[in-house]
Structure prediction request, 360 residues.
Amino acid sequence: MTIKLAILPGDGIGPEIIHQSLRVIDVLGRQGLSIETETAPVGGAGYDASGDPLPEATLALCESADAILFGAVGGPQYDTLPRAQRPEQGLLRLRKHFDLYANLRPAIVYPELAHASTLKTEVVAGLDILIVRELTGDIYFGQPRGIHTNADGLREGFDTMRYNEAEIRRIAITAFEAARKRGGRVCSVDKANVLETTQLWRDVVTETHADFADVELSHMYVDNAAMQLVRNPKQFDVIVTGNMFGDILSDAASMLTGSIGMLPSASINQKAFGMYEPIHGSAPDIAGKGLANPLASFLSLAMLLRYSVGQAEAADRIEAAVRQVLAQGLRTADIAEQGKPVVGLEAMGDAVVSALTAGA
Prediction:
């Protein structure tokens, strides 16, 4: 069976890291995995091409694919555009269109990179957390929203936090099922002492837990969870939370690993269709300089192979190649120790391709 992938490089360093991932895909093809790729613009590149951050042709390509490999979107040149035309809207619309409700963000500290964390080595060594973030609801999508002038003549902004029980239940199931394959523990993060929406969240997660008696469930307020991630991150196995809290906590967790440039993510729906992207963003300050770290893109490709197309063996090979180059001491600037040698984007790509080829 041929795997059809929609490749959306996007903006900033997105095209650079995606180019390296296409090299990895080419190796997998030579090793017998049939993968067909087609590239299309999204984000700022989509706006430049057709005045829309998610052009119709790009959406049609994604609809015909088995999964999406995504780069990054955004750049300062687009900051003055109307909100509906900004690059990030392309990403949000893809999430909503495909109902990509489950965002899986692993935060793993590789032994060779424990030094790169800003926390003490003993605090983060051996860290392996999975954050399961609900992605299509909450305050980012709730209506009504807007800015208006109130009765006192003052401008007033408003957004609506909303969740229904079906949305909460399905993300809770995703978290419990993931925990069964890991350490068997789920911590549900909310603000139930203040927000009615998250009181419902806590109630529904607790009800859903009745079907997963083999998994341990705990609850934590989001402010405490943020503190505990820094104080004692290894207490967590799977964290499940809403869209806004998950956005914040997953970025905080990324820095426990030493670099946001190391972390992949998966956004999937109930049919296992997904969009896979590194979480580091477009990094316009280093775009085009060959300095970006491509490892998170490689690891995102591995997640794609594992979760959406049933190719766990190929995913394992990519992850093994990444571990091998780290063990060899190769480091891009974001994960290098002070005074130690640094390699660029191309050299890191070469090393992973070589390791993957040799490991076949």
The first helix runs from residue 14 to 30.
